[in-house]
């Protein structure tokens, strides 16, 4: 399996956002370092998720970037994505692994060492850990865990830890110092005036 990209762009499909334009711009700057996670609103239909995932995958392929699908693993399989990401409201990790098969990339959400080791034992290939900082993108989340919370998970597992929640290029060094392999962002790219430039800044922070 090729190594996991360090910058995970999660699509923002809230009203008024333009996820495909952001994906196109990010790909030009991050190329194979980019993982695009197709995430749609819970109210979206499977057909809408499928159509977006197909279009994202077609954009990713020429760059050798990875496309994952959030929550809806049947959509991931249907479009031929590399895998998917599951959290507490989704399929359990072991079930998700059975759906994706041994070769699929499977991300799981964890914010504490215990849940993290369980997810890895159940077949997670990477962990999404957070929220690291406050975020306005998703409501109802627990308090941020900060770089210290990231470090606690990193020390407990041997898979890549992707820090999520309020991540900006300025916050990447502290997350990297805490052992994060990479970061996942929504707003840092979706709300950027120049998403290609913002992507380049995130990549620079992740690789220096
Ligand atoms: C990389 C990454 N980490 C965490 C999440 C959150 O997943 P989940 O807890 O299932 O919440 P939703 O994104 O489904 O609302 C993620 N998507 N990606
Ligand atoms: C889906 C999700 N899960 C934890 S934080 C988050 C949203 C992250 O968005 P942003 O990068 O805009 O803070
Ligand atoms: Mg989920």
From TrEMBL:
InterPro entries listed in its UniProt record: Aldolase_TIM (IPR013785), ThiamineP_synth_sf (IPR036206), ThiamineP_synth_TenI (IPR022998), TMP_synthase (IPR034291)
Domain (Thiamine phosphate synthase/TenI) ranges: 7-189
Catalytic activity of the protein: 2-(2-carboxy-4-methylthiazol-5-yl)ethyl phosphate + 4-amino-2-methyl-5-(diphosphooxymethyl)pyrimidine + 2 H(+) = thiamine phosphate + CO2 + diphosphate; 2-[(2R,5Z)-2-carboxy-4-methylthiazol-5(2H)-ylidene]ethyl phosphate + 4-amino-2-methyl-5-(diphosphooxymethyl)pyrimidine + 2 H(+) = thiamine phosphate + CO2 + diphosphate; 4-methyl-5-(2-phosphooxyethyl)-thiazole + 4-amino-2-methyl-5-(diphosphooxymethyl)pyrimidine + H(+) = thiamine phosphate + diphosphate
Protein residues bound to 4-amino-2-methyl-5-(diphosphooxymethyl)pyrimidine: 37-41, 70, 109, 138
Any Pfam family: TMP-TENI
UniProt-annotated binding residues for 2-[(2R,5Z)-2-carboxy-4-methylthiazol-5(2H)-ylidene]ethyl phosphate: 135-137, 166
GO cellular component: cytoplasm
Co-factor(s): Mg(2+)
Record text on cofactor binding: Binds 1 Mg(2+) ion per subunit.
Any one Gene Ontology molecular-function term assigned to this protein's record: magnesium ion binding
UniProt cross-references to Gene3D superfamilies, sorted A to Z: Aldolase class I
Alphabetic keyword roster: Magnesium, Metal-binding, Thiamine biosynthesis, Transferase
Enzyme class of the recorded protein, top EC level: transferase
Binding site for Mg(2+): 71, 90
Pathway assigned to this chain's UniProt record: Cofactor biosynthesis; thiamine diphosphate biosynthesis; thiamine phosphate from 4-amino-2-methyl-5-diphosphomethylpyrimidine and 4-methyl-5-(2-phosphoethyl)-thiazole: step 1/1
Enzyme Commission no: 2.5.1.3
Swiss-Prot/TrEMBL GO biological process terms: thiamine biosynthetic process; thiamine diphosphate biosynthetic process
PANTHER family associated with the record: THIAMINE-PHOSPHATE PYROPHOSPHORYLASE (PTHR20857), THIAMINE-PHOSPHATE SYNTHASE (PTHR20857:SF15)
Family the entry assigns: Belongs to the thiamine-phosphate synthase family.
Role played: Condenses 4-methyl-5-(beta-hydroxyethyl)thiazole monophosphate (THZ-P) and 2-methyl-4-amino-5-hydroxymethyl pyrimidine pyrophosphate (HMP-PP) to form thiamine monophosphate (TMP).
Annotated protein name in UniProt: Thiamine-phosphate synthase
Organism: Micromonospora chokoriensis
Gene that encodes the chain: thiE
């Amino acid at each position: 399996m090729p190594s996991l990209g360090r910058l995970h762009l999660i699509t923002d499909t809230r009203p008024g956002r333009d996820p495909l334009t952001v994906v196109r711009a990010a790909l030009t700057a991050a190329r194979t370092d980019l993982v695009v996670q197709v995430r749609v609103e819970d109210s979206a239909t499977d057909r809408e998720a499928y159509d977006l995932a197909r279009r994202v995958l077609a954009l990713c392929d020429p760059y050798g970037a990875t496309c994952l699908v959030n929550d809806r693993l049947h959509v991931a399989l249907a479009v031929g994505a590399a895998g998917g990401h599951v959290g507490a409201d989704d399929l359990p990790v072991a079930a998700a692994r059975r759906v994706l098969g041994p070769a699929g990339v499977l991300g799981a959400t964890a914010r504490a060492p215990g849940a993290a080791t369980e997810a890895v034992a159940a077949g997670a290939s990477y962990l999404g850990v957070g929220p690291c900082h406050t975020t306005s993108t998703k409501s109802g989340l627990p308090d941020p865990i900060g770089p210290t919370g990231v470090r606690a998970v990193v020390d407990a597992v041997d898979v890549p830890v992707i820090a999520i929640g309020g991540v900006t290029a300025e916050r990447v060094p502290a997350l990297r110092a805490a052992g994060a392999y990479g970061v996942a962002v929504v707003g840092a790219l979706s709300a950027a005036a120049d998403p290609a430039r913002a992507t380049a800044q995130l990549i620079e922070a992740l690789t220096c």
